[in-house]
Amino acid sequence: MKNTTLRQLTVFEVVARCRSFTRAAQSLGVTKAAVSIQIKQLEENLGVALFEQLGKRIYLTEAGRDLFHYCRRIGEQLSEAETVLERHRGSQGGQLHLCIGRTAKYFVPRLLAVFCKRWGGFRVNLSVASREMLLSRLADNTCDMAIMGQPPAESDCVSEVFLEDPLVVIAPGNHPLVVEHSIPLSRLSQEPFLMREQSSQTHQVIERFLAQQGVSLSVSMVIDSNEAIKQAVRAGLGLAIVPLHSVSLEVEAGYLTVLDVESMPLPRSWHLVHRSGKRFSQVAEAFKDFVLREARHCLAHYPAQQDKSEKENQRVDVLRHGQAG
Length: 325
What we know:
Elements: H1 6-18, H2 21-28, H3 32-46, E1 51-54, E2 57-60, H4 62-89, E3 95-101, H5 108-118, E4 123-129, H6 131-140, E5 145-148, E6 157-164, E7 167-172, H7 185-188, E8 192-195, H8 201-213, E9 218-222, H9 226-234, E10 239-243, H10 248-253, E11 256-258, E12 269-275, H11 282-299, H12 308-324
């Protein structure tokens, strides 16, 4: 491998991870042709084929799988070396590689805004991904840490709870139930509900809870986006159960209301997860400490539930709306 360059191995690792020359080129910021040239030169240097194409998809050969294993280890060692050297330089700069679950996008930017005011001169690489992708990024050591609702079962991961984000029932501001207190769960079965898809962690938590309570909901629509669910609730298409922090701004503005339902809110937590033994850069370690110590305080001022005066104002609005109809 004396003629093999680090650049060639880097390009190969990205292609092997993406399983696509096009996506690898986009990730590296180069053309697809440039990627193809690097892979061709690497295969010529090694004297083996690393990829094979079947139809429109590419697959690793046996030699490619073996090389991918070593490239990942090389990448981890180089990343750790860079982190250690950053500490020796005493630099507050560098990069923070953060991966978050899709619902975490509603509060993580607020945390980053506060943190960035204190710690300047660094770059954030933020990825919003599915649970499967988060686990893959952790396994590949391509992110410093991940924020997810349900921690992984893998023993080589460290997980710490940093924020409570309960599931609440939401309704449009003019819904008749906004003036009710201690609404029985059974009453909700009379309302159309909007739900996340079955693969969603939120859906699975809700399903287990309802089964324990012996209650079933009338699901009128399945939507794979919390943002779309919020808009559908505002439009009057039904009620929904969502994480509180995903609707805090809409509740504060009065567009949506958190209903007072028995046995609700449903407890749910966010976890900060990273590989065991992970060597953090100074900025990554500072961000971890900030999240664990201050996330609750930074997000505490967002409304969890409306007070009685707001409820009374909404009751008047609902009555007026009914009279006008």
